[in-house]
Design brief:
The structure is a homodimer.
Chain A: H1 20-30, H2 34-43, H3 46-49, H4 57-73, H5 91-101, H6 106-126, H7 129-141, E1 146-149, E2 165-169, E3 174-178, E4 186-189, E5 198-207, E6 210-220, E7 232-236, E8 249-253, E9 256-259, E10 269-270, E11 276-277, H8 283-292, H9 295-322, E12 324-327, E13 334-336, H10 341-374, H11 379-410, H12 422-430, H13 439-458, H14 466-469, H15 471-477, H16 485-496, H17 507-532, H18 537-545, H19 548-572, H20 577-597, H21 599-604, H22 610-627, H23 631-637
Parallel strand pairs in A: 1-5, 2-5
Antiparallel strand pairs in A: 2-3, 3-9, 4-8, 5-6, 7-8, 10-11, 12-13
Helix pairs in contact in A: 1-23, 4-6, 5-6, 5-9, 5-10, 6-7, 6-9, 9-10, 9-11, 9-23, 10-11, 10-19, 10-20, 10-22, 11-12, 11-13, 11-19, 13-17, 13-19, 16-17, 17-19, 17-20, 19-20, 20-22
């Protein structure tokens, strides 16, 4: 159970900044994005992207725009744009850039996310070549600043109910963008309060009195010298709980006219004859196709939250290695905080989760690239990606909020001083839980997708009785395997032939528990939802509403399983056996800590008994103790440069 | 299972601001402090104590001092001072004032806590009549501003290891206060950075070369016009994660001399002959006696955190009743957020906890009063109070941090806007988890006290076997009953004669589960600690360190039980049967939600099986649904005036 290989000497490549083991872990966790991420570490300094946390709202906003322009000029964070316009045409790389940016500052990250990711992404994904040629070059440099104006005061999660209208005016061949009520005002819009010159405005497209559903029009909201544009009323939402560098505001449109070409018409638009045309007949399908192309934002948010958490864990762990309190009985030396079991318990399982989520993010970025490359040719893969993105976003941002707080408390009073960086991370990451999809709503989307897969597999069969007998088949069809499929199958096959299959650190046992929890939770949900579907209409809401907590549980179980598989695949792809052996221990900790968190469920469903449950808790304690001597290397492996941490407690 | 009594009409007393049920709940929850708390509601407006959340550091600091002075002049928040100096001599009332202050603003609360509670409390509790007469009148008005200079950079939790020295100089009959090393600097000291003129400085008292342990000297740190004093180096710790209105700073003493009279010498000092004298012989006992008199600060912090949480729950619940999203299938009306099961689950169990903790705080305040009145005559009651205070502080501040965040997320993007008040609460309450005793350290203190009680009862008996057989006796001795003893006994006695004792809403069953969890956890811990006590010295740290998580679990189990008993006593003391019937439902929800959170433990220890565990979850869901129509009344009952909420989303 102990890691015996000695730590290796530093190499010329790593230099004095990082241990060889830390470097190896970093390479493994970066995976396919190692070269890109190393470029950030070698070329980007704290001055380039770490914010002074005491800046006020105005200063922070100017700082964020300045840094965004400067980094874009150096080719950072613009990989997602088409090569024709100066990008690299790689959505996967754009996610990796976002993750690195988030190791510096989240305001700058979200400012770039708004400008390059959301506004730029709307042009790229919903527009056609004229839009690309017209808007993208300036968007990339940051000269042509834009907003992503989807959310309204009245409707955030329920995008299909937006009130804004985009009405075709046949007499002038224009569209009129209008906010018909006060609650139709666009709200929480980044780049709106100070810097935005343009906005991609989501609204109901009305052509000849027919509502064609939500579409997007590009609308000028400020002049080049940031002066007012008639008909657009802009509000400043001012001070927020964090992200002070992002200028969120409201936009209200009073019958504003734009040319016909300003509708982003890749999936539907009005032709020169004034007739609405779309390749997608169903209004509903069109809506979800359009929204589906915007999935990258959701993926990035999860990754950014995870980067901020890695930073927080790096600060707290390094401090816990350095800070002592109370003395050893008799011996007299003061004890480093990380020697205490309670401190280990706060940090090490979260470091393990950081690795797990990191490998899962890499996989998700590659999956995004495949779906983007397929350009709609594989709708099933597109749906899977959306489900994965929703689950990962909700899971990672929840973990980020909780874990940054744990890290801040683990540093005691020092953690509360702004100069130590943790409270800024906490405040900035907070909103990640509710923007780009509110987490509770997202997890319900995941559950609905799982039910849909379930229904496709099982149709209207009576589920009672058949479920157990066909569990194996179910596992192969409904539990959509991640890319780790072959390695998982190998582990399971090998384990079945070995006596220690029930050992707590048996990876096969972890896999089986994770899969079983997902399968059983989704099956149970399917039964309940099926029953809820049969009640009279007036009771329908109450019946499905009563399943909400069950839906959230199913979504969590699914996402946990996906993450475990990604971790396993990540270890499998690690060439260095010593690094792989450390990662395997970290994966044990991830798996067992997750099982421990859900031990109530496992015992309720008699997957294991009380004595095994207690043994799992002991195993988590033991793994924390075992990994504690590698704590520095493990946080080095999380990939945040020490010079970016910006914590006074780590200096001197 | 339904609440059938109709809501009662508004009365002249309640006016239009609040429902009669809300008023009744408020009266019940205020308990013995109703008159005092109503005085705040009737006489204190938002202008008096609700902060503009966008104030910067300097403005917020000035605002806090101004408001503190103005409220003190009106007799608020100074009840804890002796009547001779213009207070009311009531420590219980001082806690209640602190709780009300925290419904306005936490910076102001902590500013008052530093000035009146900590600095003033040190003078009151550690000083003698000369100190009272000299320092208290100005302390009460806020003219004589003071610091509580205990924590050092090097030592926070480990107060006995403080490095600051207070050395007796026989030749001049003075003390010399000195910071011998950089880590001896006092840190995180409120009132130090800007406003403090005096400081109560904790340090090792050295008399004729003998260390008499930690004592406190009153030291001038600024002149009346806030100019410098030679030998005192003051640092400003500047911007923090919250509490911007509190001027935390560092104090470094370079051989500063103070007269003999400036040692707070109630428990030990140097007489005019230059000889150290103390009524308490043991240095250790003296230290803990001195610290024990400062327990009020810890009690107040828990109560203040709970008040902030009540405010957050009030905002989020009122918003959830007003805000709609998505439509009823078929019917078309948009659904209020609070109709969703997931939203109910976020808010209602936390509202139930707010009631539970509120009743427990009332009891704790009265217990504090009794111990204060006994003036050391009942050391056992003093120790119990310290244990209770530590457990409650850690429990309530943890809950506050988690729950304010839940409330902020329950409001979606709106929750993140500063104008809606939630992020300020979150940022300000954050530090409550680590100041006035770091929570993890406090919970270990609780566990140690429980073990000590256990040892007193059982001595060195072999615990194996005897534990089960003597469980009943144990219940009566080691499980120290709260004031609810008689009502609890009545419930248990009655329940044993009734068949439905196993029903999920049987209060007797709740009590038994809570007690059983505490007893078993402490017993198990005692066994492990006993074994750990027998290992060789060099393994002693590792052996006891391995019990840390178990210690935290025991402390939580104990505190949960104490809180449940207080809730039961609070209902018993409620004269209005309709209000009592609502509170009884709320108590069901508190008890079952707490059992649900700990269902892993209960199943591990075979206290109930999986099917019962699932039934508990269903019962929590059902109670949320049942209490949802009373949500407004329930948050009204939490006692935060609507005009104090200061949330833009609730206006208009």
């Amino acid at each position: 159970m102990t890691i015996t290989a000695p730590d290796r000497p530093r190499t010329a490549e790593t230099g004095p900044r990082i241990t060889a083991t830390g470097e190896g872990l970093r390479r493994a966790l970066d995976g396919p994005f190692h070269t890109l991420k190393q470029r950030w570490r070698h070329e980007v300094s704290a001055d380039d992207f770490v914010r002074d946390p005491t800046l006020g709202v105005e200063e922070a906003r100017e700082w964020a725009l300045d840094k965004l322009v400067a980094l874009a000029a150096r080719g950072f964070a613009i990989a997602g744009f088409p090569e024709a316009q100066g990008g690299r045409g790689s959505t996967a790389e754009s996610v990796a850039h976002f993750e690195m940016l988030a190791m510096g500052d989240l305001s700058l990250t979200i400012k770039s996310g708004v400008q390059h990711g959301l506004w730029g992404g709307a042009i790229v994904n919903l527009g056609t070549s004229w839009h690309h040629e017209t808007f993208l070059p300036g968007t990339i440099t940051g000269e042509l600043t834009g907003c992503f104006a989807m959310t309204e005061l009245g409707h955030g999660s329920d995008v299909q109910s937006l009130e804004t209208t985009i009405t075709w005016l046949p007499e002038t061949c224009e569209f009129e963008v209008n906010s018909p009520t006060p609650t139709a005002a666009k709200a929480y819009i980044g780049n709106a309060a100070a810097h935005g010159k343009w906005a991609a405005v989501f609204g109901q497209l009305l052509v000849d009195g027919v509502n064609q559903g939500v579409h997007v029009a590009v609308v000028r909201i400020r002049t080049d010298d940031l002066g007012p544009v008639p008909g657009v009323v802009i509000g400043d939402q001012g001070h927020k709980g964090g992200l002070l560098g992002v200028d969120n505001g409201t936009l209200f449109f009073d019958h504003v006219r734009v040319p016909r070409t300003h509708l982003l018409d890749r999936f539907g638009g009005v032709n020169t004859e004034g007739v609405y045309t779309s390749a997608i007949e169903s209004k509903n399908a069109r809506f979800f196709t359009m929204l589906g192309t915007l999935v990258r934002g959701r993926i990035c948010v999860g990754g950014g939250a995870a980067s901020a958490t890695r930073k927080a864990l790096s600060i707290a762990t390094r401090y816990s290695l350095k800070r002592t309190q109370f003395r050893l009985p008799g011996l007299g030396a003061e004890i480093p905080l990380l020697d205490y079991q309670a401190q280990q318990r706060k940090l090490l399982p979260n470091i393990a989760k950081a690795y797990a989520y990191g490998f899962a993010m890499n996989e998700l970025a590659l999956q995004l690239q495949r779906v983007t490359d397929a350009a709609g040719a594989d709708p099933k893969a597109g749906r899977e990606l959306e489900t994965r993105a929703a689950g990962m976003k909700a899971m990672l941002t929840r973990w980020a909020n909780d874990t940054i707080q744990v890290a801040r408390e683990a540093c005691g009073g020092a953690g509360y001083l702004t100069e130590n960086g943790l409270t800024l991370l906490r405040q900035d990451a907070d909103v990640f839980a509710t923007f780009e999809g509110e987490n509770t709503v997202l997890m319900q989307l995941v559950a609905k997708a799982l039910l849909l897969d379930y229904q496709r597999t099982w149709g209207d069969l009576d589920l009672r009785g058949t479920a157990q007998a066909t569990a194996r088949m179910l596992g192969e069809t409904f539990l959509e395997r991640t890319t780790a499929r072959s390695v998982i199958d190998r582990i399971l096959t090998t384990a079945n032939r070995r006596p220690e299959a029930q050992q707590l650190t048996s990876r096969a046992w972890h896999i089986q528990l994770f899969e079983d929890r997902e399968r059983h939770t989704v099956e149970g949900l399917a039964k309940r939802m099926r029953a809820a579907g049969k009640v009279p209409a007036e009771e329908a809401f109450a019946a499905t509403n009563a399943c909400q907590q069950h839906m959230l549980a199913a979504a969590r179980a699914h996402t946990d399983r996906v993450v475990l598989e990604a971790f396993i695949a990540g270890i499998d792809a690690t060439g260095d056996p010593y690094i792989a052996s450390i990662l395997s221990k970290v994966c044990d900790l991830y798996a067992l800590a997750t099982i421990e968190e859900n031990r109530g469920w496992f015992m309720e469903h008699e997957r294991f008994d009380g004595s095994r449950s207690k043994a799992i808790t002991e195993a988590v304690d033991a793994l924390c103790l075992e990994l504690r001597p590698k704590a520095l290397e493990l946080v080095e492996g999380l990939g945040v440069e020490e010079s970016w941490l910006n914590a006074a407690i780590l200096r001197g």
